[in-house]
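Folding Query — how this chain folds
Tokens — whole-number codes for backbone shape
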Amino acid sequence: MYTKDELLEKIRPAIDPELGFSVVDMGLIYEVEQDSEGLVKIAMTLTSPACPIGPQIANEVRKILEGDDQIKGIDFTWSFDPPWDPKTMASEDIQWELGIF
């Protein structure tokens, strides 16, 4: 069973194709945990509720995790509460890249 930090590291290579940054570093992953049965539950958001690439991002995250024998399933939940705000949710590196000082 993986910890939250280990799961975030596994997901880190998933990139938001519009902005070109990791969904983890952007702060799009609200919650991630693995239960005792091996199911990984992910609550994540998008840069906006109308973002058309949500399925593409979810598929990339799913593809990364499905290759792991310790992960028996993946359950996605989309959440827009709170709305994504790069000023408070993105890493300092991403804020810098986006010009948020």
About this structure: The beta strands are 15-16, 21-22, 29-34, 39-44, 73-78. The CA atoms of residues 5 and 53 lie 25 Å apart. The chain is about 30% helix and 20% strand. Helices lie at 4-11, 54-66, 86-89, 92-98.
